[in-house]
Design a protein that fits this description.
The protein has helices at about 1-50, 55-100, 155-160, 165; strands at about 110, 130-135, 140-150, 170-180, 185-190, 195, 205. By secondary structure, the protein is an alpha+beta fold. It is rod-shaped and about 175 Å long.
Length: about 210
């Protein structure tokens, strides 16, 4: 009986002792976890305090510097083609002038054999010797000191143009005059005549080579 009471007493002591130990262990574990949480919570604060943020003024300076670099690049790119264009300007003008190749009469005059041939202007009434017809696309032929006979007609010119010898069959000798003809039109002149006054003649200046 005494042994049973002793065993029960030991059991109760063991239970109480083990319970206190487990409670104390769990308390320590919670305390450790709480301490760790507090340390983790404080750590970013320390790190943020150790690494202060960049001042706003320095950020704006960096942005301004970047914008200046971009503007300089844009300016250099925009100026480059203009410089090339200016450098090519004289060459382009020279090329265009060479392609145009000569001068035109303005206005266009025809005249007798005593009228000088060349580039006609309003002040210098020279007879154009580079005439071309826009209707038949033939070059206009000239015969000095000649006049077209009244029997000359369209069929004669169409069949004989541009043979000079055959065309002379309808020409008469007359000093001071000059006869003109293409495949579809003919005209004799003594004094300088502005072709704007002769709308039936579709003759234009085909440029005088320098």
């Amino acid at each position: 009986m005494a042994e049973d009471d002793l065993d029960e007493l030991l059991d109760e002591i063991e239970k109480k002792f083990c319970r206190n130990v487990s409670v104390s262990c769990s308390g320590r574990g919670d305390a450790n976890e709480a301490g760790k949480y507090e340390k983790d919570k404080e750590r970013p604060i320390k790190q943020s305090a150790a690494k202060p943020e960049k001042p706003i003024s320095s950020i704006t300076e960096d942005i301004d510097a970047l914008l200046e670099e971009l503007l300089e690049e844009d300016c250099s790119d925009s100026l480059k083609p203009k410089t090339e264009e200016f450098s090519k300007g004289p060459q382009v003008e020279k090329k265009l002038s060479s392609q145009s190749g000569g001068r035109k009469c303005c206005p266009v005059f025809v005249g007798g054999s005593s009228v000088t041939n060349g580039v006609g202007t309003a002040t210098s009434k020279r007879s154009c010797d580079q005439l071309r017809c826009t209707s038949c696309d033939f070059r206009v032929l000239m015969f000095d000191d000649c006049e077209w006979d009244s029997s000359c007609d369209y069929l004669f010119l169409r069949n004989n143009m541009p043979d000079h010898q055959k065309l002379r069959a309808k020409l008469k000798r007359r000093r001071g005059l000059r006869s003109y003809a293409c495949q579809c039109s003919w005209f004799s002149a003594l004094q300088p005549t502005d072709l704007r006054d002769k709308p039936q003649l579709r003759w234009v200046c085909a440029k005088h080579l320098d």
